[in-house]
Amino acid sequence: xxxxxxxxxxEDAETARANCALFWDMSSSEENLVVxxxxxxxxxxxxxVDGEPAGQVVGHILKRWDSKKPMLFLFSIDVVESQRRKGVxxxxxxxxxxxxxxxxxxxxxxxxxxxxxxxMQMYQTLGGVRTNPDDVxxxxx
Length: 141
Hints:
Blueprint: E1 3-7, H1 13-21, H2 30-38, E2 42-49, E3 52-62, E4 71-79, H3 88-102, E5 107-110, H4 117-125
Parallel strand pairs: 4-5
Antiparallel strand pairs: 1-2, 2-3, 3-4
């Protein structure tokens, strides 16, 4: 099994759309996708196993007012069901963190649900530390 990880750029919009459509409703415009992929602070890494789409990481490099070093935000990680528990997510996260370090990020973070036991275990196995058991997320439209 050969896992390859690639960071997509604006020239890869069709590949990005096809890969993202495996996991999400892709109602976003082509223009929005190209703008996202062209932004150096936006990251879309895709994984292939033996040449077939296997997963992706979507994230952002976030500049900070209180530090010279930005933070790396892992917004979403998705792996096709047939490739789960085979190291795809681990490799995606490791590559994501490597790219964050190369971009000067001092730390990285991710949100998940406590009920998502596989994600909780994976993040902890990769060295993640739950810093606050009382975190709550709010959204506004």
